[in-house]
Design brief:
Low-confidence stretches: 1-16, 108-113, 444-480
CATH architecture of the largest domain: 2-Layer Sandwich
Radius of gyration: 29 Å
CATH topology of the largest domain: Nucleotidyltransferase, domain 5
Number of helices: 14
Length: about 500
């Protein structure tokens, strides 16, 4: 294997197989041959970068056992694998349990996956030698950056770097500066969604080629000769259902550019069509409701479920819950809505119970950071690919353009409106859109479909008046119809609706 003094490169093939069964991807051969101490890797999803990084750690350990005896070092060899959070860290731990060969485990006379693995401590004990004490390979989470310090490392593997905070990065970088340690590292992932993210900065710094100890590796799927025709077909199919910038980030390793708006192509979905005043016999309708009472506004949006087109909306400002309830019921009756998705978070929970008791097909939606991100991502895909259409409602357009995505310290994404703007229209639209039919396979053909018999209204921002419902949704609604119609007329006279 070549153990001459000063040699650092360890061949992948030869008389010694470092990891049984490991065969590097074509792109990884140059990666393994590189003598750079710090390697930054942008490789597409499922491109084998994790296995390649772990083999680099195994190389470092193999070499440490054969050079530079340092009995004073405790542990004799020290490595970390760091992931953005604990679930991802567990995945890395499971991979290492399989990846580490028997010869690296203490007293390993035969293959034994459990030997040397302290699962409760997320640590693997590595066999030592006469010149070097036993080593440790620990699996860590970057969720709590304060835990990533006070040690010196021979090898550091950081996975999914794009989801790790700068604070954690700074702590980890310091671990490579300890005297007596090898200080080798692999930083791998896909491009971050922020051009100013630390992972983007170190990638471009390593790409300059000005420092022999730093090297960058860029591998989009188009440069991976190991992918089969079936692999390529599948990932290109994903492009139809993903945000374009996310697909390019994951598979082409492209760093997103622009102003950071989460919803692109907002103006491309505007249609010059009037809103509806009543349901059409051959159409199905769904509704999204974002509730508020004091600070924000309650917004009700009705959509044609088949065509994913906004056909009716109301914005209610700081009104009594009874008023809001009646407005929701009116819309449900007028359009015979099949499904209603309503914000049931906090103040919305009692309204949800009341509407459900009265027989409306209401579904509660609990807003968390994760659920909000997911439902807005679905809306963003629809807007980007013109799977949704709506009239030019000024307030709604302002809100749609103001949505931005940011990273939390945990690495998770957060979507929110810019300061000073609301998101009531955005959330109501997202909930209504989530209930619409999925788009047909032939998107171009769908875009040619035109609605029929749309009746004009006076104002597209706050359409004038709620008209008396024609028909009922059920027995319980029939009992309340007379009282509701009277109350609606009073609200119209006041100019509220």
């Amino acid at each position: 294997m070549g153990e001459e003094e000063g040699e650092r490169v360890i061949p992948l093939r030869g008389t010694v197989q470092l990891a049984p069964g490991y065969v590097p991807r074509k792109w990884a051969e140059g990666f393994h041959a590189s003598e750079a101490k710090l390697k930054v890797v942008w490789v597409h999803r499922r491109g084998g970068k994790g296995w390649a990084a772990e083999h680099e750690g195994l190389k470092a350990y193999w070499w440490a056992l054969r050079t530079n005896p340092r009995m004073e070092l405790i542990p004799g060899f020290h490595a970390w694998t760091v992931a953005p959070n604990f679930p991802q860290a567990r995945q890395s731990e499971n991979e290492l349990e399989v990846f580490l060969p028997a010869w690296a485990r203490p007293n390993a006379t035969q293959w034994d996956q459990s030997r040397g693995h302290r699962r409760d401590e997320h640590t693997f004990v590595l066999r030592g030698s006469r010149e070097r004490r036993e080593g440790l390979w620990e699996v860590k989470s970057a969720f709590e950056p304060e835990s990533l310090q006070t040690v010196g490392l021979d090898f550091l593997h950081v996975t999914e770097c794009q989801d790790i905070s700068e604070t954690a990065f700074n702590r980890m970088l310091a671990t490579l500066r300890s005297p007596g340690r090898m200080g080798l590292s692999v930083w791998e992932g896909i491009p971050p969604d922020d051009p100013d993210h630390w992972f983007a900065r170190i990638f471009y710094d390593a790409s300059k080629g000005e420092d022999a100890d730093r090297q960058a590796f860029f591998v989009p799927y188009t440069a991976n000769s190991d992918l089969t025709a079936g692999d390529i077909k599948a990932l290109e199919k994903d492009r139809e259902v993903m945000l374009e910038r996310e697909w390019k980030r994951m598979w082409l390793c492209e760093l997103p550019t622009g102003e950071g708006a989460f919803l692109g192509n907002v103006d491309g979905c505007i249609v010059n069509l009037p809103l509806l005043t009543e349901a059409e016999s051959d159409h199905r309708y769904v509704m999204g409701v974002d509730l508020a009472k004091k600070v924000d506004y309650t917004v009700i949006i009705v959509m044609d479920a088949c065509h994913r087109r906004l056909v009716w909306h109301r914005q209610i400002r700081k009104m009594d819950w009874n008023v809001q309830e009646e407005a929701i019921k009116y819309a449900a009756q007028t359009f015979k809505t099949r499904r209603i998705r309503l914000d049931s978070t906090g103040v919305g929970d009692p309204m949800f119970d009341r509407l459900r008791f009265d027989g409306l097909p209401v579904e509660g939606f609990l807003f968390t950071n994760e659920s909000k991100y997911q439902i807005l991502t679905s809306l963003a895909i629809g807007v980007e690919k013109r799977l949704i259409s709506y009239p030019a409602v000024p307030e709604m357009l302002r809100e749609l353009r103001s949505v931005r995505a940011s990273k939390l310290p945990s690495g998770r994404s957060r979507v929110e409106s810019t300061a000073g703007t609301h998101d009531d229209y955005v959330m109501a639209l997202a909930m209504a859109y989530s209930l619409c039919d999925p788009p047909p396979a032939d998107l171009a053909k769908w875009q040619d479909i035109k609605p029929m018999r749309y009746a004009p209204v006076v104002d597209t921002l706050v359409p004038g008046g709620i008209i008396e419902a024609k028909g009922t949704v059920g027995f319980l609604e029939r009992r309340r119809l007379a009282r509701q119609a009277s109350r609606i007329k009073e609200l119209e006279a006041l100019g509220v609706l």
